[in-house]
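Hi R.,

Here's the input for the zinc ion complex you asked about:
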Amino acid sequence: MENPHDFGRAFRALQLTCERALGSPLYREQPSNLRLASMEDFQKLPLTKRQDLQRVGIHGTRAVPLEEVCHYGETSGTTGASNSTWLTAGDFARNAQAIAVRHPDIFAPGRIIMNRFPFMSAPAHLIQLIAQQGAGVSIPAGNINWDVPFPRALDLARRTGAQVLAGFPFEPIILAKLAQARGLDPAKDLALDTFFLGGSPLPPVLQRRIEKIWNARVIELYGSTETMLLGTGCCERSLHLEIDHAYCEILRLDSEEYADVGEVGRLIVTTLGIEGSPLIRFDTGDRVRRLPPCACGDPRPAIVVLGRDGDEVKLGGSQFYSYEIIEAAAAAADAIDSSVFFTVVLPDRLLVRIEAEFADPAPAYTALRHHLRDVKVEIECVAPDMVLDTETLSRSPSVYKPVLISDWRGPERHILSIDQGMIEWPALGFAEAGRWLNRIWKKALTRRRLKQKIRVAKRRGE
Ligand SMILES: [Zn+2]
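And here is the predicted structure with zinc ion in place:
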């Protein structure tokens, strides 16, 4: 992919990455020549695959002595083994500064940032660092965490008057529903004006939906554990690549040729700003589509991230990426004024469950067909809390520091074990338990009905 930045500068940056990479077992033991004399030399280098990272083991990508490292990270390993990455303080500082400089209206002194990225993900630490570098006040309130469940996150945002929320794309949907359940209007009763979101597909229809409910704007963040920051969104909702931090090539799915604008390709990244675990021509596994020049005026290439290699879903005669399925379902939900949906891929159709009781599903069907063409679809409009149960979410646990002594003589908590000391769930009330059982029962019925149909279809050899 021809990058619009200074070619000589890009080549020098690639040379530096290759020199750095010689410090790691991953590249030191590779037969290819990493002493680049020309761009052709670079293009001849083999791709680095995820399996290569796993093959060399936990320290295999580390190119600097441990004394220079400040952070270890690894992929969640949902597809099997994890990839390891070692980063220096400089690696983090460069990424944090790049984000802050790119978005001075989001990150600025005095701006309060709710940092909901999980502790083990790199963006959580980038947000902390952005604040430490002087561009805001961060609240480290990672989700997927016992001590800051959703209700507490909502309280924190209200009490502190947070203006920015950084986290996963579904965070604002969940918080909005919780707020509404408490009789609050997210657009009026909270000060949040910007959502900085990444980690899963965020099609424009979902961005607009979040912006509408919250009267706030959405900026997308894109990167990976192995490569760190790769890009952020612009005012036109395009994801621009951070070409000073990552040299990106988009190759055709079936060859080493560069993909054209509009064509789906493989994203290959050579890190430029990473000393700890530099990577050369790393196949991210991400499937992306290069966009035409962006109307915002930023000359850097813009892409849409469609999903991961292997995540594609075959429906009817076509293949869809997770981005396309989420985009279609979000558009269907939006068409009947809902933000809460869930998709189930069945052998013969796509089932989209939308929280929109008594809604006429016709506009949702139109939206789905517009996106998924001739795929067989079914929309199930369900009652509130059937897709996202705010009552269960609101039953947030109380979390305490671990203790080894419990004094039963006083009014303090009477506990008998360490685990009881750390966490305590509120008891279910009678009415609450009834509603909860009712939802469980309904979901079990739906599950049984769907499974039975799948079994019958299999028997018939469909
Ligand atoms: Zn743009």
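One thing worth noting: The pocket of zinc ion is lined by residues 234, 236, 238, 240, 294, 296, 298, 302 (CB under 6 Å).

Cheers,
M.
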